[in-house]
Structures
1.
Amino acid sequence: MRDSLPTTGRIRKLWSGESDLYRDHHLRLDFDSRRSRFGCAVSEAFIDRYVAIANGIDSVIHGFFVDGTLRGGGELRPLGPALAEQAEAAFSIEKPWQSHGVGTALLGRTLLAARNRGFKLLHMACLADNRRMQQLALKFDAELSFDFGSVIGEVEAAHPTPLSVMRELITDSTGFATALLEVQSRLLRPA
Ligand SMILES: CC(C)(COP(=O)(O)OP(=O)(O)OC[C@H]1O[C@@H](n2cnc3c(N)ncnc32)[C@H](O)[C@@H]1OP(=O)(O)O)[C@@H](O)C(=O)NCCC(=O)NCCS
């Protein structure tokens, strides 16, 4: 599965204290992308409330960073104890970085995280006219069976293996190293 990215971009998990980055990223989405992401036009106040919930303790959010700015996100959010083994997945990439493989890389990371947490059903709210998201999901048909009618994806083999856990650990540690370098370079930058 392709995991190549625009050369200047890096993917890593977001930390709990980074909800402002996630909020600002959603506010930068153009009208159409914001509508595709949330299924309808939404206000700034809605995004504020949404990000506060999305950044909950059980969520896993992978961020796509370019020069320290968050330009894309892939979100995995459990639906709660009443719907154990089910989660919601959502993706958002700012327009200039769309169609460059970022969604592919983020969905790959999100599926790996879902598998390692034992989720069997992934809900993705996807508008019927969102061809790109549908094409993207189809690329993962070996790992995800996706029913666009009911917008529910079924994660195949939804049980972690030592290898799948190791893959997530390895991508986390490279992401962490990159994050440290980013912070360091920000500190060293002349004021
Ligand atoms: C939908 C979205 C997540 C896809 O991410 P992306 O980075 O643009 O997609 P990718 O570049 O990884 O392309 C994935 C596949 O989509 C298809 N695709 C890419 N660009 C396309 C375009 N302009 N039109 C139609 N299909 C396209 C291709 O099949 C591509 O796979 P390939 O490059 O191997 O051929 C992203 O465009 C986005 O954030 N859109 C706005 C918000 C949204 O729709 N979110 C989804 C709802 S949760």
2.
Amino acid sequence: MEEVEAVSAVIRSGMLAQGPQVENFEQAFSRYCNTMHGVAVNSGTAALHATLFALGIGPGDEVILPSFTFFATASSVCMSGATPVFTDVNADTFNISIDSLKQHLTEKTRAVIGVHLFGQPFAVQPVTKICEDQGIPLIEDAAQAHGALYHGKKVGSLGAAGCFSFYPTKNMTAGEGGMVTTNDPALSERMRRFINHGQAEKYLHTCIGYNFRMTDLGAAIGVAQLNKLEAFNARRKENAAYYDEHIQCPGIIIPKVAPGVEHVYHQYVIRVRSECQLTRDQLAIALREKGIGTAVHYPVPLNGQPVFREYAKECRCPVSDMLAGEVLSLPVHPLLTDEERLYITECINAVV
Ligand SMILES: Cc1ncc(COP(=O)(O)O)c(C=O)c1O
């Protein structure tokens, strides 16, 4: 296995912290995304946090983001001292609603974080137009969408910065880790300082920064995984196409793909509607009894999270609230065999 070889080579080199592998990974990943710079960090959350810092976002600023996403999209905003503002999403793509976004703009809005949720690019063109009109940056949260395309362009290259995660369940991994892609050299320099104790040079600190550095061990895994990403994504798409074709149950809605985008199916998320004879939770239990693991992404939208209660007072996100009760993620990972996906499909069609 290439990853084992790559990690062994790093251990043998004695250079375990940041070294040449991190630089290799940054170059290879930014080249893959068609951006000039890649800044490797130790998580997707750190990627978002560093981006917000480098864009100068802090206390008193509002950052708009969808309510239906993973916690870190918003917690990173809080870490920067700014205020997250939650917008609703579209029921068919699970991605940010343009109408809701417009309704949440204020004179304090300083950035928008769009999330390519479950591997499907959000509507980048209309969001970019809004950001341009407001004179504010668009940050892509691409943690779930390595390799996805929007009108032929790689996610991560479409806004001021793209933030990726390499957590092990993602479309590719580095053990843990993250990366920011950008075409802005000044932004990339500010991030580099922030993720390395605020050092402009060794032992000269010009801002309060963190230790968000990726290790060479992680980067070596990342380089090996990047070489396999297209094959991983191709298999995810094949599995998704199989489900699209074969799941036939009244009341179950299969994922819809927006025109002009290439979805990379970090998750394959069905909606279990009230017309279905089982509830979402009953279906999950029935599948578990047949040995099939599913998951709910996400059972509580951000506007309903206890820690965000203060920020969510003014937010109305009825679609996110509805989706939280309907969504069920089926296994779609690249190691799923033909037999397994046939079995999963047969079980769903039989129990519903
Ligand atoms: C949409 C989204 N944003 C941000 C993150 C944060 O990434 P990490 O877990 O690497 O910090 C994740 C990871 O789960 C995610 O799914």
3.
Amino acid sequence: MFFHAHPDDEALLTSGTMAMLAAEGHRVVLVVATSGERGQADLEPGEALGAARIAELYRSAAALGCARVVNLGYGDSGLAPGGGVAEDRPDNAFIDADGEEAARRLAAILTEERADLLTIYDPAGGYGHPDHVQVHRVGGRAAEIAETPIVLEATVNRDPLLKGLKLVRRFYPRLDVRAFERAYSPGETITHRVNVRRFARQKRASMAAHASQATGADTRTLGVMLKVPEPFYRLIFGTEWYVRRDVPSGSRLRHPFEIPPKG
Ligand SMILES: [Zn+2]
């Protein structure tokens, strides 16, 4: 089970792993906390945007071979202009939800699916969106309640990310690289490096499915990513990274279900 904050987060962080596990015959379930109705798009933020983004999520899930999509239905907390928690967030914002209740709802799905594995985010919530931090908290607690054996924190190896973004910035000078300098995780904390190059086509299809986030202003992350030429794309998006807290940091595991060597 892959737990994400908003539609399109799965495309950027875990879509290659999802396509890989589906191709191996695993039942892959995608759960989002919100419909992302306060994302950047040509549509005004609100219900129509939320509905459009959920439709995009289903297209992405289909491209990846997911068996089921669940939306927990919390409000997208949005992001304050300078980062952090937005003041004008909706009443049912995910960030304001009762964490224990949200965790129990997610745990019920984990139990129903007899999930072997749950992905959440790192404690910083990647680039720090409040809903992503909440995914870490709620997801971690849900796995405790459901006694899910494997919890992986989906993240990005900051070191090659910065290198790659600096390369992309040569072509798109308005791309703000500074925002990524403290985001995600440094290489030495990462325990899983999953090679997803064979699933580059599915990953790209998943990103392309989120058209509302990829069109319009060319500074949007997804829009920029989709313009990356194919060879660079495979280089930048060929690996997905995870931190598993109950294996020694510095482990170099290659598959989500790989068992670390003893000793
Ligand atoms: Zn998000």
4.
Amino acid sequence: MTAEALRARVAPLDVERIRKDFPVLEQEVHGKPLVYLDSAATSQKPRAVIDAIARYYLEDNANVHRGVHLLSERATHAYEAAREKVRRFIHAAHAHEIVFVRGTTEAINLVAQTYGRTRVRPGDENLITVMEHHSNIVPWQMLCEEKGATLRVAPMDDDGQLILDELERLIGPRTKLVALGHVSNALGTIHPVRRIVEMAHRRKVPVLLDGAQAVPHLAVDVQALGCDFYAFSGHKLFGPTGIGVLYGRSELLEEMPPWQGGGDMISSVTFEKTTYNKLPYKFEAGTPDIAGAIGLGAAIDYVSRLGLEAIAAHEHELLVHATEALRQLPGLRLVGTAKEKASVLSFLFGDVHPHDIGTILDREGIAVRTGHHCAQPLMQRLGVAATARASLAFYNRREDVDALVAGLHKVREVFG
Ligand SMILES: Cc1ncc(COP(=O)(O)O)c(C=O)c1O
């Protein structure tokens, strides 16, 4: 569905009311109202999330899956209810396909260290793309080094779109896994992941999708996408830090050995032999981030109440406005101009170093990210050392974009 069709279908968000749910947005920074345009790095948290975490610690705090006492039962119930919320949110077939981890990084490392280590042999290949975040590069590089395998990299065009023919050609008889982002953190490109999954599956190659930048913006249905693994972080989805999700198809998770050993991941232990717990506990060694999971569940409730269609429509409107406004600024170059984009705007501004752009904007109360965005190989492909990046969420308004443009005029005044 096009963004225009979406907008026609859903009621617009009441952003002023929504902003009242985010206490952190109410403050001033350097004497100016905060304009938070760094949600791709981490999103702000609604009061409902903060309250859910506080309530857990105030009323229910106990360890999960262990005690017979009431508090432990309540904590276990809340933790497992959060897993069910995640299952519904990404439309996984089973709750046991949802593994709680620390974040996207840990989810990808888990797959590399279990699935990867048992499947990849010398001479094999893993395929990623040039747009990956370091967390979807380095774990595969480490695996390939250990196994004598090769990391292949699918290229992109100058707009920041994957060149699908070339990507398809790189999936060969030795490819063991394709791993790519759903949405690029540095450029905002939304990749045609369903088509890519089909390409890989035709050759019987499983696909891992890094959904860190997708879940805050798009409705994700892992069964419709057909992917084998899907990873995301709670803190980019308006939930707390320290919690994330690895979704894996049951058949694959069943076959994979555990990663970390310890409490909860076992079924029985003797000094001679340990047998492992069933899914998903086999992959959740030790006391998990119970409060984090509960907070993530509350974030999912919050986002679901707003509706991802309404969020996508609002953000698309903001993206169009921001793109037009930034293009009016002489000397400003947008980096990442794909047809399908989430609300992320990377840019360069004349000769001004992105770090200086970020510093001057900060003095105006405007928070943007500057640097390589944990995507150094992408920066090399683009021929730049760094960019400035404004990333928008549903709590942003047109005024925030206009403040960014005014801030950039200040940057130009300072740097002539
Ligand atoms: C596309 C993408 N993948 C992975 C990550 C890593 O996420 P985390 O640091 O929460 O593990 C990020 C974080 O910026 C990201 O944007």
